[in-house]
Automatic annotation (TrEMBL), chains A, B:
Subcellular location, principal: cytoplasm
Domain PhoU: 22-108, 125-209
Protein name: Phosphate-specific transport system accessory protein PhoU
Pfam families hit by this protein: PhoU
Annotated keywords: Cytoplasm, Phosphate transport, Transport
Domain of life: Bacteria
Source organism of the structure: Azospirillum griseum
GO BP, sorted A to Z: intracellular phosphate ion homeostasis; negative regulation of phosphate metabolic process; phosphate ion transport
Function: Plays a role in the regulation of phosphate uptake.
């Protein structure tokens, strides 16, 4: 009877842990959507709200960590339960980073809202929607402990990386064609990089879900198609420099 | 006697865990120094070696994680021992990211080595040296479990962030003055951001050391002086666009 009681209490604590992780995931998704909206609509006020909203994610991370440490100390879990708790610890660390990156996008949005002209934002919006979809699926895969969905998320990260590489080249050419947009393009490139990194962290979470569900350790090899580090756009030499 | 035996075995496993974490820290420091050298000397071959070297860090992370999970499962540690193991898990996750960022710097170095002309690299080199010093101190603070040193590292992160913000403005002006260096400056800005992020992660590790040593949970408030997201350099309108 005492054993049954302990098991029920442990299950309740584990459920509370899952709920807290999901709450943090929901906040991250909301922050990302808000940051992308503020960027697309040049809405500095909305962006400022997103920046302020990051504190709630940090607070939840601290709470979840305290829960995991208490569970480890008091319950001394084994096998699947242990993996569940270790995965939560790793997942919230990724979620906290994702929240930071959403905040970074919002900070760029504040600056961009004050600039006189911006380059076309279509590629960035497309990339943003892809990453929002990854984050939504990541949350569903965690809630349902769905290894198939988690594996599919991991495979999609390569597409986001490829989109970012294209965008990097595109923005380099805008900068060369329209030097007055150099500041805007630079901030947009960093915003794009932050969005791409949110996709990377969603992929890390997907790998933690695979580990949680069936003990698979994440493979170090995954699609790495962000080749933007190697991108070069050669300028046509401006007339003023040809002499 | 059996108890004494178990304690000795546990201490040996904990020492092995510490040694593996430190080995990973040493590799990260070496990779960072190599990446900065390859950038400063435009040495694509050295940069390529650094890129290849990241796999060893990833491999060590996997090994340390397996060690921590085994220790949690078999030893069911309490109090300081539990914190020690949780801290190791969090520290190696930061070290893995630091290794990735060193690899990112090296990737930029490969591209930059192929470009015809670069802007002045003095600020970047200075920032790089500051972060290398932080990483070296981070390793020492972990090895000696030195909370005073760990707290000092955390306070220094603000200086690196401030240096990055200055550098961001500086490179925006280079791009406006010399459009033929836009590609180079963009890659250098991302390299600088990666170096700044290595400093952030060294700071996270310092906070994990504080937690390990005396159970202090990291404060969410720390010096945040990277204001580059808000930096704007307004262009003087080029002559070619004045008509």
């Amino acid at each position: 009877m005492a054993g049954g009681h302990t098991v029920a209490a442990f299950d309740a604590e584990l459920a509370a842990l899952h709920a807290a992780v999901d709450r943090m995931g929901a906040l991250v998704e909301q922050q990302l959507v808000g940051a992308l909206d503020s960027l697309a609509t040049a809405d500095a006020e909305k962006a400022t709200q997103v920046i302020a909203g990051d504190a709630a994610i940090d607070q939840l991370e601290t709470e979840v960590e305290a829960m995991t440490i208490r569970l480890l100390a008091l319950r001394q879990p084994m096998a699947k339960d242990l993996r569940d708790i270790v995965a939560a610890l790793k997942i919230v660390s990724n979620l906290e980073r994702m929240g930071d990156f959403a905040g970074s996008v919002a900070k760029r949005a504040v600056t961009l809202a004050g600039l006189p002209s911006l380059p076309p934002l279509g590629s960035l919006a497309w990339m943003g929607r892809s990453v929002v979809a990854m984050v939504a699926d990541m949350r569903r895969a965690y809630a349902d402990q769905d290894a198939t969905l988690a594996a599919a998320i991991r495979d999609r990260d390569g597409e986001v990386d490829a989109a970012y590489t294209s965008l990097f080249r595109e923005f380099l050419t805008y900068m060369m064609e329209t030097p007055s947009q150099i500041t805007a393009c630079t901030h947009l490139l960093f915003a794009a990089k932050s969005i791409e990194r949110i996709g990377d962290h969603a992929t890390n979470v997907a790998e933690n879900i695979l580990y949680l569900v069936d003990g698979r350790l994440p493979s170090q090899e995954r699609n790495k198609e962000d080749l933007s580090s190697f991108a070069v756009a050669l300028p046509s030499v401006p007339e003023s420099e040809q002499n």
